[in-house]
Known about the structure:
By secondary structure, the chain is an alpha+beta fold. The protein contains three helices and seven strands.
Amino acid sequence: MATASAFIDIPASAEDVWQLIGGFNTLPDWLPFIPKSELSEGGRVRRLETSDGGVVVERLETFDNAAKTYSYSIVQAPFPATDYRATIKVEAQGQGARVTWSGRFSPVGVTDEEVVALFAGIYQGGLEALRANYPA
């Protein structure tokens, strides 16, 4: 099992950041490469459309509003990985917030290094896009 992780510090309160990213259907609000998200199964499954027309289906596994974190798994995606599970977490960090996005997965048809680089890039790019919502 391979893992990847990225974090970013944001000059806003953890509560404000969680307000933007804490909903399972809010990716289009802060992630430019996910322009569309539709919920099903009572809000437990989201069908994402990527900016290049791809489809990713994810299932909410855990949600803790008080701790400002949720975990999800991938049901369907064009990624070279299986057994994918990721977590997004927002924590107070001084006057601001630290957002961590991490995941674990098993590569399929590629090396651990290749799939780690893929997801680390997605996480880092996503967090940088999130950070752009909070000018210093």
